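Q: Given only this backbone (321 positions), what sequence would you predict?
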């Protein structure tokens, strides 16, 4: 990654913060398998209406998982909770449901911590048994699981007596994320009138769905436009899992960043990802820009959004009751 002269110190501070987060997660005894983290600290009782929360998150390496865990840590004292890492993976979800049921939970709110609310929504409902499409759970514990990018993608219907309610929105729908973008932009900016901001996200394969991603994230980016007088601000997606679409997107992204410098300014790149900078340093290699490498977590606004989703589900209807 190439940026202004502040980069070395900024990168050093970021590495130190990430190491601290990882250490805190280890000290917190979050030593379970990478696919799921048992964060339940409250038993479900009549006073808590036997409610617990299953948070679905994509998952990644140790830093990815620990930053998400840290973001959700304040919620541990509010309700039994389990983080199921994976892309709607039945095995990870089953582990989370089993853990919550051992805590006495009978009503489970499933909060999907993804950028787009469309991601794996129907698949999740199928796995939970809320609509047809998933086969019964296999008998063998070592049954082969489908894979995507190294992640387990098991598809079968959960074995559970719990009732479920599932969140529909993603972080791109969350007004709270506008405040996160403003904070990121303000910290990186020196002279807004000479700076172009690029808000960069993963993006899906389908063209129509990608347009919905762009529109929703752009609505969040309006908070930045209102807060700071940047020369330009644009939202783009890399569509990084589909080579043909990625190639075209990469050309557009690099052109936008290059233009900032050619016009005597500079580019600020803010990832609209749950965690980290993804592959963007590779995509932007050789270009001048400034970034801090931070995704949406860790940030208290993400914590607030998950809490809001959980409480909305808690007050609503549960399938299976």
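A: Predicted residues:
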């Amino acid at each position: 990654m190439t940026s202004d002269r502040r980069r070395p110190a900024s990168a050093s501070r970021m590495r130190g913060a990430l190491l601290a987060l990882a250490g805190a997660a280890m000290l917190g005894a979050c030593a379970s398998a990478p696919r799921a983290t048992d964060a339940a600290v409250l038993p479900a009782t009549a006073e808590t209406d036997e409610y617990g929360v299953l948070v679905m998150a994509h998952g990644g390496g140790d830093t990815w998982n620990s930053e998400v865990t840290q973001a959700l840590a304040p919620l541990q004292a509010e309700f039994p909770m389990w983080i199921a890492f994976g892309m709607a993976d039945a095995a990870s979800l089953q582990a989370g449901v089993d853990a919550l049921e051992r805590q006495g939970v009978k009503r489970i709110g499933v909060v999907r911590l993804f950028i787009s609310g469309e991601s794996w929504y129907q698949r999740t409902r199928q796995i939970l048994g809320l609509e047809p499409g998933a086969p019964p759970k296999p008998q063998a514990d070592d049954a082969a699981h489908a894979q995507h990018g190294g992640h387990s993608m098991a598809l079968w219907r959960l074995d559970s007596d719990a009732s479920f309610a599932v969140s529909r929105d993603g972080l791109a729908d969350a007004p709270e994320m506008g405040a996160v973008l403003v904070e990121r932009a303000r910290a990186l900016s020196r002279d807004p009138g000479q700076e172009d901001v690029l808000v960069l996200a993963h993006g899906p394969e389908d063209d129509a769905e990608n347009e919905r991603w762009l529109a929703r994230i752009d609505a969040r980016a309006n908070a930045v436009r209102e807060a700071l007088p940047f020369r330009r601000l644009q939202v783009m997606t890399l569509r990084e899992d589909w080579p043909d679409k990625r190639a075209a997107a990469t050309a557009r992204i690099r052109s936008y960043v290059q233009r900032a410098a050619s016009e005597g300014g500079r580019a600020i790149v803010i990832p609209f990802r749950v965690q980290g900078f993804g592959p963007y340093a590779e995509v932007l290699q050789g270009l001048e820009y400034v970034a801090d490498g931070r995704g949406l977590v860790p940030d208290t606004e993400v914590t607030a959004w998950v809490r809001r989703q959980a409480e909305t589900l808690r007050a609503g209807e549960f399938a299976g009751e």
